[in-house]
Write a structure and sequence with these properties.
Shape of chain A: globular
Mean pLDDT of chain A: 80
Low-confidence stretches of chain B: 168-172
Largest interface: A-B, 19 and 31 residues
Mean pLDDT of chain B: 91
Structural class of chain B: alpha+beta
Low-confidence stretches of chain A: 1-5
Radius of gyration of chain A: 13 Å
Shape of chain B: elongated
Largest sheet of chain A: none
Order of helices and strands of chain B: EHEEEEEEHHEEEEHEEEEEEEEEEHEEEE
Number of strands of chain B: 25
Strand order of the largest sheet of chain B: 2-1-3-5-4
Number of strands of chain A: 1
Distance between the termini of chain B: 47 Å
Oligomer: heterodimer
Number of helices of chain B: 5
Number of helices of chain A: 3
Order of helices and strands of chain A: HHHE
Largest sheet of chain B: 5 strands, mixed
Structural class of chain A: mainly alpha
Radius of gyration of chain B: 23 Å
């Protein structure tokens, strides 16, 4: 079995991104189910993350965004509450 | 900085190393931690004193997975470390993920680099959105001996604690021939960047540059700030593109355009506008090659090819330096002269024929300079 899910698969990318955004951008649980009027919370968090990291703000999990998400990093949250 | 947190209200801080990683010698850990604090004490009035018992301001520990702070680590890779903003209790403490492989070199995660970042948090700095800053959230290896605290981090920490006051204020203006200024005649001289400029050769080193106007003239040495007040010190790469009468000078994720002899008003610009991915945090060297009519950018052991006509990066890059430039693996400075490329790495200079695709001569680093 592969140690990590293969990269470049849309489903895996979405799951990985969701976990990443929960950890560092205070994305709330069940974002896929909580879609109401307006933009998806996941899209908003992707945009927030892209803006913070100086990436092109697309709201999409493009290759550059995924590449940065996969980089090793500091565990301090970039947004949300500070305890 | 952290919202609502103005940092420590004292200048003399203590730290304690609670435990060690088995990945490194204890003396290596001690040294990495000490150096990481020095990064911040060099530019502020802060002092850091190690204590061995009692509770310090900044408690340093290695731990894996759940470790009693509600921020569990996640196994190898991913999150490497975290630290808390200044306050009592857990405030200021820095935790390093023991599931990582820690090192004093580059094979694994360099403890000095990660600790320097975490101590930024311990002192009150939040993450930076400047990709060349130490406080940018993602890890980027830099050779510790070449590490210099980027400007964004200096500005951040000095906004909290002020600048370090020098023991003595200089009474005369700074001159390029001060005793601390490097001399080109030293046999082991290295350069930060080299470029041609309207027929001259410019060698950048720290806050100065040498200007070799012609082969027969004596070299001139100047402060960068005297010639180009808006250009930073410690330029890391530079190249001339004669068709536009421009020199591009690089530092971190920014570059400055010198048009003729003047720095353009829209400088600095972002290297990402040239087509670099965000994983690139600095450029080691750059050169325009007349033979292939391409600009080459060198980053670690990779290179990119840039098309000046299309003003875009060629596809299929980066590639390994050694694949296009046999005999070379890393390039720290480069320039082109009389159809040859000249590459600098450490104390070596290589003359490279782009047409023959091979190194044709090995030269001394200071061979172009008449002292």
């Amino acid at each position: 079995f592969p140690a990590e899910p293969p990269r470049g698969n849309e489903e895996n990318d979405a799951k990985f991104a969701e976990e990443y955004l929960k950890r560092y951008y205070n994305l709330q649980n069940n974002v896929r189910q909580s879609r109401k009027k307006g933009e998806n919370p996941l899209t908003l968090k992707i945009k927030e993350m892209q803006q913070f990291l100086g990436l092109k703000v697309t709201g999409k999990l493009d290759s550059e965004t995924m590449e940065v998400m996969h980089q090793p990093r500091c565990g301090f949250v970039d947004a949300g509450e500070f305890n | 900085i952290f919202p609502g947190n103005k940092g420590w209200n004292k200048k003399e801080l203590t730290y304690r190393i609670l435990n060690y990683t088995p990945d490194m010698l204890q003396s290596e850990v001690d040294y990495a931690i000490q150096r990481a604090f020095k990064v911040w004490s060099d530019v502020t009035p802060l002092t850091f004193t190690r204590i061995y018992s009692g509770v310090s301001d900044i408690e340093i520990s290695f731990a894996a997975q759940v470790h009693n702070d509600y921020y569990p680590f996640d196994g190898p890779h991913g999150t490497l470390a975290h630290a808390f903003a200044p306050s009592s209790g857990i405030g200021g403490d820095a935790h390093f993920d023991e599931d990582e492989t820690w090192t004093s070199g580059s094979n694994g995660y360099n403890l000095f680099i990660v600790a320097a970042h975490e101590f930024g948090h311990s002192l009150g700095l939040f993450h930076s959105s400047d990709p060349s800053a130490l406080m940018y959230p993602t890890y980027h290896f830099t050779e510790p001996s070449e590490f210099r605290l980027p400007e964004d981090d200096v500005n951040g920490i000095q906004s909290l604690y002020g600048a370090r006051t020098a023991p003595e204020e200089p009474t005369v203006p700074e001159k390029p021939n001060d005793p601390s200024t490097p001399s080109t005649c030293l046999p082991n001289i290295t350069f930060d960047a080299v470029t041609t400029l309207r027929g001259e050769i410019i060698f950048f080193k720290e806050k100065t540059f040498w200007r070799q106007i012609s082969q027969n003239s004596e070299v001139e040495q100047h402060l960068i700030s005297t010639f180009w007040p808006t250009l930073p010190n410690h330029i890391q790469a530079a190249y001339e593109f004669q068709d536009r009468d421009q020199v591009l000078a690089f530092k971190g994720a920014k570059y400055w355009v010198i048009s003729g002899y003047e720095v353009t008003e829209d400088s600095p610009k972002s290297i990402y506008d040239l087509g670099f991915p965000r994983t690139v945090r600095k450029v080691d060297a750059a050169v325009y090659d007349d033979n292939s009519r391409k600009t080459y950018f060198f980053v670690n052991d990779n290179y990119w090819s840039y098309d000046e006509q299309k003003q875009s990066m060629d596809s299929g890059f980066p590639k390994k330096i050694v694949d296009r430039f046999p005999g070379l693996t890393k390039i720290r400075a480069a320039f082109q002269k009389d159809g040859f490329l000249y590459f600098f790495d450490g104390h070596h200079q290589y003359e490279f024929s782009s047409a023959k695709r091979r190194v044709t001569r090995l030269l001394k680093n200071n061979s172009w300079i008449k002292c």
